[in-house]
Design a protein that fits this description.
By secondary structure, the protein is of the alpha/beta class. The chain contains 10 helices and 10 strands. Helix 8 links the parallel strand 8 (247-252) and strand 9 (273-278). Helix 1 (74-80) packs across helix 10, helix 2 (107-120) packs across helix 3 (132-143) and helix 5 crosses helix 6. Mean pLDDT is 86; it is low at 1-29.
Length: 320
């Protein structure tokens, strides 16, 4: 594995050697933002660190969905940054990272996450996984629970039914037929609640953002399209349970990718797991209720009363 560290506030003046490790742990960086380049099995990827010199909790490592790279979490920077070092990533196949070969599975992404934690040089991290990233971070916590202080999982695709798979097949057929506009429209419909009888905050803005991101990937980023296809095609493994890691699972109350009750059932397989829903949102709750999600994350990672947040609808402790 190789690494380079670049201070993004002075990257035009100096660039670190590809073989150089960061010279200090995040807490020693005086609030700077740095970008680190790693590799796994010859695939280059990167992670970004917003350093908090006086943290009150462990670093927060964020792994998002197929279209969410390391620069897509400004609300977490604003809310969590004053309390903890925030770490975001472009894993292989995402963002600026090298594309994943078609035959490669998620195991390499697991090792990429391990590489980030190793490179941070801290005993434990808080993990935040959203959508496709929820599977990766959950599996990471299962493998190395001693390295995870807390686990926050959002929009967990714990159960993808035949209807969603059929919709996605239709979308990919449009892409294969050279119809990216139709592909973007159908793919967005798979991931969002478009039922006008259900209230979704900022629905129009979120829809435009998601559709535009998918269309841009289809037109300009072939490996990003492949990542999106992999995320919606593969069956994530959420079996096996988890113990020893405090975990909070959240989703929008109108999530149509995996319904809230299915996600609640999944949370019930975790020994120290809790489940909540956010009002007026669907699977893309991190866009539609971005400030509330950031507040929920801050509450959870700093051991404040996350379950008492006012924007939650009928918070539930999973039955066991």
């Amino acid at each position: 594995m190789t690494v380079e560290s670049v201070d993004t506030k002075a990257h035009e003046d100096a660039a670190a050697s590809p073989s150089a490790r960061p010279s200090a742990a995040p807490a020693d960086r005086d609030g700077k933002e740095t970008i680190h380049s790693l590799s796994v099995d010859g695939l280059r990827y990167a992670y970004r660190v917003l350093h908090q010199p006086e943290p009150v909790t462990e670093p927060v490592l964020v792994v998002g969905g197929a279209l969410q790279g390391m620069l897509g979490w400004p609300q977490l920077d604003d809310h969590i940054g004053p309390a903890a070092t925030v770490v975001t990533a472009d894993l292989p196949g995402m963002g600026s990272a090298d594309p994943l070969p078609p035959e490669v599975g998620t195991e390499i992404l697991q090792r990429a996450i391990d590489g980030i934690i190793d490179d941070l040089g801290v005993p434990k991290v808080n993990l935040f996984g959203f959508s496709y990233g929820a599977a990766l971070t959950f599996n990471c916590a299962q493998r190395t629970p001693d390295r995870v202080a807390r686990l926050l999982l959002g929009g967990v695709p714990a159960h993808i039914g035949p209807e969603q798979r059929a919709q996605w097949l239709r979308a990919t057929q449009r892409l294969a037929a050279g119809q990216p506009e139709e592909f973007a429209t159908l793919a967005t419909g798979v991931m969002m609640c478009l039922d006008e009888e259900r209230t979704v905050a900022n629905r129009t803005i979120a829809y435009r953002y998601v559709r535009r991101s998918i269309l841009h990937a289809a037109l300009h980023s072939p490996h990003a399209t492949a990542a999106l296809q992999r995320a919606l095609r593969d069956t994530p493994d959420f079996s096996g349970g988890l113990s020893g890691v405090p975990t909070l699972v959240f989703t929008g109350e109108h999530d149509t990718v995996t319904g809230p009750e299915r996600q609640r059932e999944f949370a019930g397989t975790i020994a120290d797991g809790r489940f909540v829903t956010l009002a007026d949102s669907d699977h893309w709750v991190v866009l539609e209720r971005s400030q509330e999600v950031a507040d929920l994350a801050l509450r959870f990672f700093t051991d404040r009363a996350a379950l008492a947040a006012p924007y939650l609808t009928a918070p539930l402790d999973p039955a066991r």
